[in-house]
Amino acid sequence: MILIAESGSTKTQWCTLLNGTIGHQVNTPGINPLLVSVEEIEGAFRPVTAELEESPAKIFFFGAGCSSVPAREKIITALNTLFKCTDIYIGSDLVAACYALAGKEPGIVGLLGTGSNSCLWDGRSVMKNVPSLGYILGDEGGGVSLGKQLVADFLKNQMPLHLRIKFVKKYDLSVETAVDRVYQKPMPNRYLAGFAPFLEENIEDDYCRSIVYGQFDRFVLRNILQYENYTRYETHFCGSIAFGFRQILKEVCLKYRLCIGQIVKEPLLLLAGYLKLYGDFESK
C-alpha cells in the first residue's frame, strides 16, 4: 500500500493507493514544518493512522514549506514515527501541482491558495521558480493577499458602505482585533485568508471583482510573465482561490495572451492518477 499526502497551509489531504485502486481519503489540518515542532506534526497527522489497516510500504508527501532540508527532516521523522515506514519521499506543494496538472509535458504552473507560487516545468523537474517570498513580501493573488487588502480597506474606510454593512454582520472586526491577530497571534496568514470567502460571496459587486482582478493581474505580471517564452506553454493553476475565481483568472490570462490549461482546486487525486499510471515520480 502507498500513502500519498498533499499539504497546504489550511489542510492536508491523504489517500491510499493499493493495486492501482485509490482507497481511503482523509483530511487533517495543514502545517508549516518550518514553524511547528515534530511533535506538533505528529499530532496533526495522527488521525490518519486510525484509517489504515496496515503500515504503508511507501509514503509520498508533498507540502508547503517542504523545500528546505530541516523541514523535510521534520516531516520524515514524524511520518516514520507514526507509520513505521522508512521509504518516504518529501516534495514541495509546487512540484505536486506540476505532476498533477502538467505531468510529463512542459508547462507553467501557478499555485493560488492561501499563498501563491509558480514555476516553469520541463516535464520532469522545475526549470525556473520566481520566489514566492511569502505573505509579507509576496503571495500576490493568494487568499492571504486578498484578505489583507479587504481588511485594510474596511479598517481605513475604503470599502463601499453597502459592503461594510454586510462585512460587519459577518465578521467581528476592529482595529484592535486585527492588529492583535496579525501581529501577536500565530498563523496570521491563515487568519487573513479567512476573509477571502467574502469576496467570493459578493463577486458580482464591482468593488470585490476589482480586488480579485487586480490581485490576479499582479500575480501574472510579477510571476508568470517572468518565464521566458511564456506564451509557448500551457499555464495551469491549482488551489482554492484559482478555482473559486477561475472566470476572472481566465480573463486576466487572456489579457496577457496566456494559453490556459487546467484549473483545479486540489491536486491529490490527479497525483494518485499519475502514480498509478507511471509508478513513481521522476524528480525523486
Write the element-wise H/E pattern from the N-terminal end onward: EEEHEHEHEEEHHHHHHHEHHEH
Q: Name the CATH homologous superfamily of the largest domain.
A: ATPase, nucleotide binding domain
CATH T-level topology of the largest domain: Nucleotidyltransferase, domain 5
Helix-strand makeup class: alpha/beta
Instruction: Please tell me the total number of domains.
Output: 2
Over all CA atoms, what is the radius of gyration?
Answer: 19 Å
Q: Detail the poorly predicted runs.
A: none
Which terms would index this structure?
5-stranded mixed β-sheet; 10 strands; Nucleotidyltransferase, domain 5; 284 residues; alpha/beta; 2 domains
Outline the structure in words:
The chain has 284 residues and is of the alpha/beta class. It folds into 2 domains: 2-97 and 267-278, ATPase, nucleotide binding domain (Nucleotidyltransferase, domain 5), CATH 3.30.420; 104-264, Nucleotidyltransferase, domain 5 (2-Layer Sandwich). The chain is built from 13 helices and 10 strands. The chain has helices spanning 38-45, 69-83, 93-101, 134-137, 143-155, 161-170, 175-183, 188-193, 196-201, 206-222, 240-244, 246-255, 268-278; strands spanning 2-7, 11-18, 21-29, 58-63, 88-92, 107-112, 116-121, 126-128, 234-238, 259-264. The longest helix is centred in the C-terminal third of the chain and has 17 residues, at 206-222.
